[in-house]
Amino acid sequence: MIILRTSPTSPYGRKARIAAAVLGLEDQIKVDWADTRASEGSLYEQNPLAKVPTLLLENGESVYDSRVALELLDALAGGGKIIPTGEARISALTKQAMADGITDAAIQAQIETRNHPEEHWNTVWIERQQGKVNRTLKAFNDQPLPTPAQTNGIPDCAQIALACSLGYLDLRANGDWRRENPELICWHDAFVEQVPAYNETLAPEMLEGS
Ligand SMILES: N[C@@H](CCC(=O)N[C@@H](CS)C(=O)NCC(=O)O)C(=O)O
What we know:
Elements: E1 2-6, H1 11-22, E2 29-33, H2 42-46, E3 54-56, E4 62-63, H3 66-76, H4 88-115, H5 123-142, H6 157-172, H7 182-194, H8 196-200, H9 204-209
Helix pairs in contact: 1-3, 1-6, 4-5, 4-6
The chain binds glutathione.
């Protein structure tokens, strides 16, 4: 059995949880919640970066980060399912990096606003991060990814990463992305409808709010 260390709200961990579900690997993976705010504990021994997701393999090896976890899960399921092979591979991985980059920048902005009183916010830094988020959202809005139904019913790594980024923006940034990205709303809604694991992995806060 593979152990997936993650947290209920982690957008990167959610990528691995959705990947396991769409690949039919849930029986082979046990989720073990990790507290990423702790300053010591097992996660530190399993991953010196103390980040989630971290996969613990039966041979004792730890695997991270989320992009490598998706590669491993895809290989376990036979390969070529959520990570395209051939020419499409690099494009899918680049789009996954773009989507993860939205989450990375949104988290950077969150850290600044969460950790300091408003009068001490570094607004230049926040605007810089927000610019990354807005430009990348616009790129996905202008050239939408295919929906999972258009890719044999299984979302690829880019689609999974983008859905998790949008879910993170809904959770932590008031869903502001919805104001200027109508095509992305359509894409998101199709993903939610076509991939039940999306709603099954909603953060507890979102469930309480619904
Ligand atoms: N690039 C990494 C990012 C992982 C990451 O930053 N995870 C966050 C949770 S959303 C974390 O573990 N934060 C704890 C920390 O940085 O100490 C991935 O794709 O897995």
